[in-house]
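REQUEST FORM: STRUCTURE PREDICTION
Request ID: SP-0412
Submitted by: Lab K.M.
Chain count: 1
Length (residues): 132
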Amino acid sequence: MRAPMVVIMSLLPLSVAVLLFACAVKPAVTVTDVDNGTKVEIQSGEFLAVKLEAQLGTGYGWKVVSESEELVLKGEPEQVSKQGHKPGGPDIQTFKFKAVKKGETTLRLQYIEAWKKKSKPLKEYTITVIVK
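STATUS: Completed
RESULT:
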């Protein structure tokens, strides 16, 4: 019974280190609403964060509508309320991408009611990403 506890205790520091590293990964480049239509450069292996304003209480939200070999979406988007948030007020949706292959790609997101099958976007966000 003692041997499994020794194994668990010896793995605990490693588990904590992995968790801290995963939480500490900061994007190399962060783009926001004002960067719509621009080009950004990022190194292969680095992370890109796309932070866009949304009013999630309305049923609208941002959705990635383009896929590429150069960028891989990591996890679900984070949704954070702005300071002083009022019900129905603006939130920030953050999408994180990892640059996995050198090249150039267009990243497109649409602001839509994703729950509706034939919803038309209210807005589009497009940037060109150059992975070096």
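NOTES: The longest strand covers residues 103-112.
Reviewed by: T.R.
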